[in-house]
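Lecture notes, unit on protein representations.

Consider one protein chain, 82 amino acids long.
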Amino acid sequence: MKTPVLALAIATAAFAGSSLYLWSQLREERARAAQVEDATRKLNERVAELEKARTPFSSQVVNGNGVIYGQVTQGSADAAPA
C-alpha cells in the first residue's frame, strides 16, 4: 500500500513541475505575441502614412525625357521651384 501512495506523490510532483514550466512558457509567449502585435500595428500605421503620402504622386507619369505629366496639386503649387 505504501508503494502506490509514493508513486502517486511522485506523479503529482512531476505534473506540478511540468505545469509550472508550461505556465512560464505561456507567459513568455504571450509577451512575445504582444510585442509582435505592437510592432505590426506600428508598421501598419507607417504603411498607411506612406500610402497617404504617395497619393498625390500616383497620378503623375514620367516620360523617357524626365518630364512629369499629371495633375498639379495644391501642395506642389506652394513648393519652391527647383
